[in-house]
Structure formats: C-alpha cells, structure tokens
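#lab-general

N.A. 3:47 PM
ok so I finally got the sequence cleaned up, no stray characters, all 326 residues accounted for. can someone with queue access submit it? mine expired

B.Y. 3:52 PM
send it over

N.A. 3:53 PM
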Amino acid sequence: MPVTHITSDPEKLTMDIVADFAAPPERVWQVFTDPRQLERFWGPPGWPATFTRFDFAPGGLAQYRMTGPRGETSRGRWEFLAIDEPRSFEVLDGFADEDGDLADDIPPMRMVFAFEPTATGTRLNGVTHFSSAAALEQAVGMGMVEGTRMAMGQLDAVLQDLRDYAAGKGTRLEVLDDQHVRITRLIEGPRELVWRAHHEPELLSQWLLGPDGWRMTVCEVDTTVGGTYRYAWEPVGGTEGQPFGFDGETLLSDAPRRAVTTEHMTGTDYPSTINDLQLYEEDGATLLTLLIEYPDAATRDMVLATGMVDGMETSYQRLERELLPA
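B.Y. 4:20 PM
back already:
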C-alpha cells in the first residue's frame, strides 16, 4: 500500500494524507490529471469512478460519478482553484446532484495535492481543509479515511505498464479487510473476448473447469440485471470429489467493463458473496480484477482455505490456452 499515513486535526480542521510512489513526479502528476487514468483509482474498491467532464484549468470543473456494486451512484465535482504543473493543484471538492451542482446537505472541502521528488520516486502530500469541526467529523464518519486508503492502494496498477505490473505473476490475492478480497490476473487477450469468455455458455464451458479431471454439467447464464445464472460440475475419469454448483443473480452489467453478481453454493445454506468483476485493457492485454465481498471474516477464511485461488489460476491458464489466439 502506498499510503504512509492519514491524520485528521480537529483544531486546524484538516485531514492530511502522505503516500509514496515508486514513479517520478511527472508520471504521478499524469495519473492524477488524466481522467481516464484517474478514474481507475479515484474511488474505493467496489465504487469505481467515471469522469464525465474534466476541464483542467483554473476555474474549470470536473464531474464524476462512483457506481456501487448494486448500481447505486454517488456524484461529485471538483472546481480547479490553482494549478502549478507538475508540483501541485488545488480543488474545491464536493458532492453533487444529478445536474452536477453542489449538493446542499454536505459542505464542500478544499483539497490540495502536492507532489515532491524522493530518492525512490514521488511523495504525495495531500491536505483537505474543512469548513467546520462538524464537517470533518461527518467526513470521518462516512468512511473517508479508509476509503482514501483503499483508493490509493489501487495506484500501483495504474502507474506501471500493465504487463510490468502483472505479467508472469499469475493469479494474485489481496486481503483488503474482514469482508473483502481482491483477485487480479493479467489475461493476454482483448477485453471484448475476455468478457465473452465470462458470459457466453459455449465459451464458459471450455475453460471454467477448475482443476483437471472435472467437467461442467450445467452452464446457464442471464446477464441482464435481475437475471440469474447456474453452474454445476462433476468429477470424471476416477477423479475424487462430489458434484457441486453455484447459482446467483446479476446485480450490475456494464459490458465489457464490469459485471457484479451474487454467488451461492447450490443446495446449501451458506451465505452468498458479491463478486465484482472489472476488466481493463491496455495494449492488447486485459487486467481482470475480481473484488469479492464476504459476509464476515470466518466465511472469507473458509472459502480461501479450499484452494480457490489455485483453482482459478488453473482455469485462467485454460482460458488463455483454449480461447485466445497463440
């Protein structure tokens, strides 16, 4: 995680963030001022941002929305107050209504982003100024500290070339908190095909098999919001194990970028998870990010102990081998 610390000061009415990045200031400046790169991390996991306006000049406006796993939206806007490229910029940050105007119920905050070179890259010093102690307390109560920490934790994938960041590393697991894990895997193929491989039964049945010695017996998929899916597998050729399956519902579908579904083990009373799949393509390769929300830490640990990540890696290798051009 790049964040060194986040502290709030009720007397000064400020919140300070310090984060260190292994990239030069010009590169860090770029990801904070290019909306297509900014939206890859501006928002905690599960709430990615989409910038619909970005007028990067003093007096200009940026408007964005963050979309939750069930399709909920939270809108925000920046008014650019000052820009000193590539050292710092200052914005008036606030929640916005559907028209992009500042919301009346939460006062805006003045945010200063400053970037300085270090021996290993760049240090971000960010200061947020609040209008009152009540506004600072409200922001902390809404989860601003942890949300900022988790959002900044996504920056390493943005700063590096995608293949440098992920190629050859296989399926990677990050435990974010008691309820959330993030799984990433670079797929050497275009996003459109990776999306189809996750949603078309004739393609799914060729690769989503887990360990060798299993076959998929049921593959029913409805990708419309509110639609359901059902998968089932059984062992073949003397492989040990009992047949099992999963079922769930589509909560959000934004092809070919994002799909959110529930997942439940068929025929059990185990609680469901929420699986948030996001795909990002760069130079013909696709970074697959799967954010899984568990009901509690005990369920998380039970599922991870099954060897789930190893099974996923075997399936992703099969996807590349069977469905992608050599």
